[in-house]
Amino acid sequence: MSGPMTNTAKILMVLLAISVAALAGFMLGRHGRGDVYEQRRLGVMQTIARQAGPGQMLLVGDSIVEMQALPPLCGLTAINAGISGARSTDLVDFAESAIALTRPSKIVFAVGVNDLRHGTGLDAWTARTTELIGLWPGKPIIVGITPLKDRDRTTAERMNDVLRHLAKARGGVFVTGLTSQETFDGVHPSPAGAKAWQARIDGACGGV
Question: pTM score, two decimals?
């Protein structure tokens, strides 16, 4: 015969509920926070564009972009549209909104490392990256992918070949990504690496 729920049973039920919620959050990953986080980022970018005026530079990418304190590039205010952990497919809708809100005159795409890390198929990645870069009607600056230490460098080279082709097809410029020596963890830029990365983008401005 069942009686009133004991304190121990209540505690176990609460712990179970917390565990289920935590598992759901883990499975959702970036997408679980995506809408709220990305809307906040878009709001910040819109404010910067209002202060600086339209026609600035927008940098779309993953944590390699988001983690940088960007100086002016190409003589323009650099608007950081990086989303940590993002793959190409994650950035299409976000980038479309960012472009509409900020109305940049120049744009940088720096994405692909997370696709490499998670083993996104080359054909699927190429299709989504082509769609992403196609959001911009002008000439883009496209940054190459940094090979990961524990991944097949051949795959990274093939991905960079795709990016070079996209840059050429759009009349833009391909820029070499970070070297391992320019990172502090094999992926993200060290202080010196960030300066070198930014300098390469600045140097590409004349081509777009």
Answer: 0.83
